[in-house]
Amino acid sequence: MDFINDKKRHTNLPDQFFLGGLGLSSGRLNNWRMRYGKQNNHNGAIPRGHWLEEWEREKIIQFYREHETDGYRRCTYMMIDQDIVYTSSSSVYRVLKKADCIRSWNTKSSKKGSGFDPPTKAHAHWHMDIANIKIEGVFYFLICVLDGYSRSIIYWDLRESMKDTDVGIVQQAAIEKYPDKQTRFITDNGKQFVGKEFKTFVSDNGLSHVTTSPYYPQSNGKLERFHKTIKEDCIRRKVPFNYDDAKRIISNYIEYYNRERLHSAIGYVTPDDMLNGRQKEIHLKRYQKLENRRKERAEKNQILQNSLFCEQSLTSTNMECSRNLRISAEGRSEATLCRKELEHEH
């Protein structure tokens, strides 16, 4: 471009005059003219502020492999909360997909019904159900009370039977834990929940009770899903050898579930945080961490681009100086040759 501009300035010739001799198209010349003075990236991708660095990719892969029971979305928010890597779930997925680390999950199509209004605050709905737990050939019965808004386990117990009295003990303990809450119990149509004793207890405490549709356990799906999770992630992995060991293992897992495990259905916060209204504060902190990290990446990439531009400018300057020196040397050679010719003629 310097050559063409210089010649045009001295000769006032049009662009077409130079295109044929230089083997250029008008489009390429226009592109060069638009890019003149700008940084040359050699058709390479320009670093963006949201691009992850190599150490971040390594941390993502390592963290995902260390948490075999957690999906990539849950791992994303766990890494943000633990100040490991700040990025979005889509970026985590791309990193894991490229590294061929994504675990496949056996998912089934949803069978959820319609017409159910979810709770808008904690302690509005308490789900109650019973799960069979087999330990060394003996069946025990896990009775849980789950808050429908936060997914928190309000109270639980592992009983040797599932009679009305067993259900009543768990129900009484849950109410004593939160005596000022006027909640609605949601249960299936099991005989323990439709009997006279249960109904009397609900009525005497000023509570309400609804049952799910017959032959449709999905309508109590929040607690059904918890029972599936605790069996897969706790009972089958730990393999308790007796009743006391099972209670210890279940107690530890429910403590982890309530206070540490990020729940996908409530915005990847813990049930305990949701129960106590801390979810907005957590989401705001995550957003601030992501924004700060994006700014850091953008500043680092800008410094890198400026450094490359300075190097390219220095290279261009050196080339220009070399060209000028060459022209000067050629000019001196021509002057010397002319002087010698004149001396020869004389």
From TrEMBL:
<dbReference type="InterPro" id="IPR036397">
    <property type="entry name" value="RNaseH_sf"/>
</dbReference>
<dbReference type="GO" id="GO:0015074">
    <property type="term" value="P:DNA integration"/>
</dbReference>
<dbReference type="InterPro" id="IPR012337">
    <property type="entry name" value="RNaseH-like_sf"/>
</dbReference>
<dbReference type="InterPro" id="IPR001584">
    <property type="entry name" value="Integrase_cat-core"/>
</dbReference>
<dbReference type="GO" id="GO:0003676">
    <property type="term" value="F:nucleic acid binding"/>
</dbReference>
<protein>
    <recommendedName>
        <fullName>Integrase catalytic domain-containing protein</fullName>
    </recommendedName>
</protein>
<feature type="domain" description="Integrase catalytic">
    <location>
        <begin position="114"/>
        <end position="279"/>
    </location>
</feature>
<dbReference type="Pfam" id="PF13683">
    <property type="entry name" value="rve_3"/>
</dbReference>
<dbReference type="InterPro" id="IPR050900">
    <property type="entry name" value="Transposase_IS3/IS150/IS904"/>
</dbReference>
